[in-house]
Amino acid sequence: MAILLYDVPSMLCTCGARKTYPNNVQDSMSNCLCEPAEAKVNCLCSDLNITSVFESEVENRLPIRRPWLNFYAAKDDPSTVAATVPSLVTAELLVHLKDSFDKTVIKVTESVCKVNNAILQGCYSCPQGAIANITCFTNGEPTIASIRCHDHIFTTPCHREGTSFTIIYGSEKARVHQECEVSCGTTITTFELTGVLQWTRTIHGTMKRIVNGESNVYDEIVLPDFLHIFDVMVTWYKTILIVAACLIIAIVISYVFFWMFGSRILMGGAKLLCRVIYGAIMLCLCSVSSPMKAVLRAWKERSLAKKRL
């Protein structure tokens, strides 16, 4: 359960819940209009609807996720808030010993850890950051690998069969192409972390956080990645210009081709059409005249036969 903390008002009222649950009840700033009345004070106060504050505002409810820290309700006691660190970093320890030793045993593990390329998903210039799912492999015993991506450092468990791990990466740029180093010994391997992140901030959300006192103007002055926006617009314009150029070239070629060879094509087409029509007519006449010629030939033969008789 998340708790809103307000300034303690100058006038408090007796509350039964305060005695029963002294650790779970917090004072809320009361908006009261008070008037004196003999030995008492009559106050007309407007109640603070805490339920609506928790139900309507996402930032007032658990879990709260940040790239470096997460807040959750404890499983054994929901009224207790537990904080977890998503990814820890390695530390170098330097120990000075004043005593002398007769014998020392040094064991050095030279494991090689590798991580496959990963894709970032999420937003940039936002509190929650972007996430990437990685898998770490090692050729030796299970160990802990250190990952360095420029200014970001993570640690992840590694195993022969591979161990999945989620890293949270905070970026101020929309397009991320980062080469990261992985080491669990003296050997360093690399992998690429890439992705195109989204811009999720809005003017309405910024003004709302400032008015509610959840942030200040300085922290909210965050501009989008105009260079990425310009690159996208240039890419769109290039595509539009290429299509327009192809269309213009096609129109010009068609225009020139029509004026140079249009009349010849039309005359040739007309002649071809006339020949087709003439051939069709002749074919029809032939198909009609052939039976008539056969009938006339038969009639002439009969006439000659009668004259001979």
UniProtKB/TrEMBL annotation:
Keyword Membrane included in the entry's annotation: yes
Keyword hit for Cell cycle: no
Source species, domain of life: Eukaryota
Keyword entries, A-Z: Membrane, Transmembrane, Transmembrane helix
Transmembrane segments: 240-261, 276-299
Domain Phlebovirus glycoprotein G2 fusion intervals: 29-94
One Pfam family cited in the UniProt record for this chain: Phlebovirus_G2
Protein name (Swiss-Prot/TrEMBL): Phlebovirus glycoprotein G2 fusion domain-containing protein
